[in-house]
Amino acid sequence: MVPLAGLVDTAFLGHLDDISHLGGVALATVIFNVVYWSFGFLRMGTTGTTAQARGRGDAEEIWLILLRNGAIALSFGVAILLLQVPIRDLSFALLSAEPEVRAAGMAFYNARIWDAPAVLMNLVLMGWFLGREKGRRVIVLSLVGNGSNVVFNTIFISGLGWASTGAGLGTALSQYVTLAVGLSLLAREGGFQKLWAVVPQGWNLQAIKGLFLLNRDILVRTFALVLSFALFTNFSSALGRETLAANTLLLQVVTLSAYFIDGIAFATESFAGRYYGSGDRTHLRRLLTLGGFTSIALGLSFALAFVLFPAPLFGLLTGHQEVIAIVKIYVGWLIPILGLGAIAYMLDGYFLGLTAGPVLRNATVLAAGVGFLPLALLAQSLGSAHLLWLALVGLMAARALTLLWAVPKSLA
């Protein structure tokens, strides 16, 4: 359900007469990916630590994790709101785009930025529910949040004709709907009383220091990954609006499949944390085998579906035939990207469950700096979209190999 909102945005904007709106939202999404997913540690760090506390049977620590990470999320969310103008001006100054595309991107940004506190709080809530193996609650949050986004976008984009502004406003409102539902689920189990009960223990300098050390490593990991995708989109923009639109559609497929694979990765994360917390290495090995084969099969299935049937599937996202023609040229790159990416996504979940922050940090920084950046810069210099996609393959391959290298030591 998570990528459905982005797909709906793309489908609505991709069928407008002016393709600048699709490119503009893709450009603005780069900014939100960098800003919001740099705080992905709020979800990832919450899941692993909660799962391990559950494995130890430490009920009080489970609520303390929610309290501390929730406070951090709210603080950062408010800070983003206060700094929204300098973030916008600096970001768009660094991004390459034609004037119409830039204007559409700024309209989306100005409408969506107000959801910052809700986005970060939702990351914590989802991570906490996943750490407690409450997957059904995460499904409810996804259904409600993304379902409401579909409704809002239908009203604002199709009904009122607000284009980029409507897409941003619809996404922002859906995040607050998600937060409201998440807090209501928390209240149903007496969560606010339990949180209040652990407030006196909330300020523990040693625990907060450990939390920030883990979050620092995950922050570096996430920032390196998000920056790579941001550079990919920015370099795509320099190749022209049609190529930017085509690459945006292909990245939507990567995102869609990644979230399906992340379902396996999240489950791997929860179980890995519990097994690691209880010292059960046998089940950790079985978990890796099952998660690995399932992820690869899922990733390749998605890739093959879009490679074999590009016209009807991408036709759902845009009516511009010139864009679909460009998509057909590059769609084959989905096979190595999703095949190798599946391994990387699953192992990400595994090491997040083990709260092995340095492993994740080092693997992703190496992948971004060695596997992706040199090829991406060469692609920009030569103006080659094929080289740009090869750079993304390099990113996925390097992540998969470096994480696989660290697996034996984790099982020792």
From TrEMBL:
Looking up Pfam families in the UniProt record yields: MatE (PF01554)
Report the subcellular localization.
Membrane
- What is its membrane topology? Multi-pass membrane protein
Signal sequence annotation: none
Give the residue spans that cross the bilayer: 20-42, 62-87, 107-131, 138-163, 169-187, 218-237, 249-267, 287-311, 323-347, 359-380, 386-407
Entry-linked PANTHER family: PROTEIN DETOXIFICATION 44, CHLOROPLASTIC, PROTEIN DETOXIFICATION 44, CHLOROPLASTIC-RELATED
Q: What is this protein called?
A: MATE family efflux transporter
